[in-house]
Amino acid sequence: MKEAKAALERNRQGTDRALPDSSPKPLADQNIWVISCLEAGEGCAAPAAGAKEAGEAIGWDVTVFDGKGTPDVYAQGIRTAIADKADGIILDVIDCIAAKGALEEAKTAGIPIFAFYSFDCDDPLLGEGGQPLFDAELLFEDGQTWMQRVENVQAKSVADYVIAETEGAAKIIQFTEDELLVTQHLYRGFNQRIEACGGCEIVAKVPYTLADLATGKLQAKAEAALTQNPDANVVYSPYDAALTLGISQAVTASGRDADLLVTGNEGLSANLAAVSAGKGQDMIAGAPARWVGWAAIDGMNRLLQGEPQVDAGIGNQTLDASSPSMPTETTFYDGNIGADGKPLQDYEANYLRIWGLS
């Protein structure tokens, strides 16, 4: 309990670190393709927009391809990039396994592949024998990969919040979606921390599919789970879209909104608004939306020049009703903020400086 409360206070302050202090001079005239998981979703579109802005700032031709949330379309985008003789491909929230054949073709064509918020084909949840296809990926503190970050930091920050806010007496309805590797890693990290709580328990697991998000079936599943578990005091969602596309509506309709602690991740615009209003969601474990796109361009530049990847400085921050403020310069979470809601660091200005553009 004491450990969870201490972690929560650190996370409320934010754990972003120093920004990179040097970079190789950007190569000129690069043709870079960003394969975005779903441009209709802010969690994919904002990082893609950040990458396009950053790439164009250094004179690169950056094409954002909308993967439309479909593996076949991801593959189409990668193959179109190959045909366009891309100098590099950036994967925006697309797992290797979802486009393995096309990525193998890109490797054969000698096109470097950089990924963020994505899992490679050697991910342990896929079993043994998978071969990695990413040439580089976004790195975090102490060289942590996204997989390590998700389980050891992101997921556990949510668990610490739940433990601290319920005084170690959480009764959790956990919504589970196993089609994405990120959700499976989030569950592993969250559940490991909850098991160590002692007085906390998962009283119900509610499976849903990505199709349930599109068809509106998730809200009915959430309503049923709330009815069947009247003693639950926590609702766990693996990502923000599941809240805005059904779970939050079920919580507010139940009449139990004030009694339920509803967790979220990312910090997309609609979710920040919900937490600010205290309707259907109570906390955010922030993941910066636009910053990662800028960091990806820096990472791709290093990759193209055979330079090692560096810690981008991206940490996390827990936002809730007890936070000093909510972001005031963006509608979505995009890095640690202070009590005035303004960013504590200017990553854009820093990248322009180390790229020799300011």
TrEMBL record:
One of its GO terms (molecular function) is carbohydrate binding. The keyword Acyltransferase does not apply. InterPro entries: Peripla_BP_I, SBP_2_dom. Residues 47-307 form the Periplasmic binding protein domain. Residues 1-25 are annotated as: Disordered. GO terms for cellular component: cell envelope. It is found in: Cell envelope. Keywords: Signal. Residues 1-19 have a biased composition (Basic and acidic residues). Gene3D superfamilies: 3.40.50.2300. It holds the Pfam family Peripla_BP_4. Belongs to the bacterial solute-binding protein 2 family. This is Ribose transport system substrate-binding protein.
